[in-house]
Amino acid sequence: MHPRALLDACAELVGLALKFDHPADQVVSRYFREHRALGPRERATLAETVYTVLRRKLLFDHFAPSGSGPKERRMAILGFHGPRDFLKSALSDVEKRWLDQCDAVRPDDLLDRHRHNLPEWLVAPLKAQLGDEFPALAESLQQPAPLDLRVNALTDKRADVQKELGLAGIRAEPAPFSPWGLRIDGKPALAKLDAFARGAVEVQDEGSQLLALLLDAKRGEMVVDFCAGAGGKTLAIGATMRSTGRLYAFDTSAHRLDALKPRLARSKLSNVHPAAIAHERDERIKRLAGKIDRVLVDAPCSGLGTLRRNPDLKWRQTPAAIEELKAKQTAILQGAARLVKSGGRLVYATCSVLPEENEAIAEAFGAAHPDFEVRDVVPLLEGLKVADARRLGAGGGEGTRYLRLWPHRHATDGFFAAVWQRK
Fold first, then answer.
1. What are phi and psi of 217, to 5 degrees?
2. Catalytic center residues
3. Does this model's pTM top 0.85?
């Protein structure tokens, strides 16, 4: 594709994404569906350009007024993902001079907001938690996330799959914490691999793998994944149960559960029962009350721990929406807790970095439910052979009470988890 045509396409797609009418990943996939002639390299340039613009929007908003031409074109030039000389071959002399001026600005000469590229309402709670580490987090959130795979423990061994990927020309390293994880360099076409087709691996962030691990579901148990979504954690839990017992995958969206079906078929699991529910007080829930060994509540949340993958969330999310989410999280956790039998385990998790969706919800639940005893996550993870588990804790006297994962510390998405045992 000619450089000018590719830049025009980038500008068009950037313009669509910056309307914020729909999540960026949906905007990008729809654009690709409508432009089927685009090759894989062009698609990569388009997608990465859009995501770079979303990640560094405040900085580019600051540079854009000094340029010329339509704003979406200026933003696309600033965020263009590809060689500089290729880009410059599509620019006018005026645009080239402007881009050189932008490139020459030193980060130290910028305002804080143009360095961290986060909305002000989000900066305060992050600085309060992290102090001097805040710049490191802000920088990590502006980088693309690595690609993590989970090896299907039911059917395969990690070392074997690592070797198999190596033979296919894909470098994979064991993930630092998850015993099932492999981290991959770049973004290879996984769907074409035999390991993927036969269900030996699934794409899943290492943090998400650790949540499934924390549930520690055993053979023959009754287990519920309460907000299963497309079922990434469900599949990981099913493998730890060695495809025995019963694993219910509940979600209020039948559409999301539909995405689980092909993955479930590949996984070789026969113990998973997906079911759409109306709400956390659904009749199905009432029938199972007090009968379940382990319940995972991966609650609907702001998703602000996933900004490396979904940078548009920081511009689409609002404090008002988070207030609504807190009420939903509290209700869902209470509804799910009814399922747990005495001696059973309850795990509450989010992919948020905000204490109000995390520690605050967990503390309030603990205060209102004296029959649930909080379990420190670090000893649990150590018992599950997680390497360096002490680095994963937060809160509590020794920092061992809750799981707290951060992109800049752990190279995972931002995650929180609390674990209780019913007395």
1. -65, 140
2. 351
3. yes
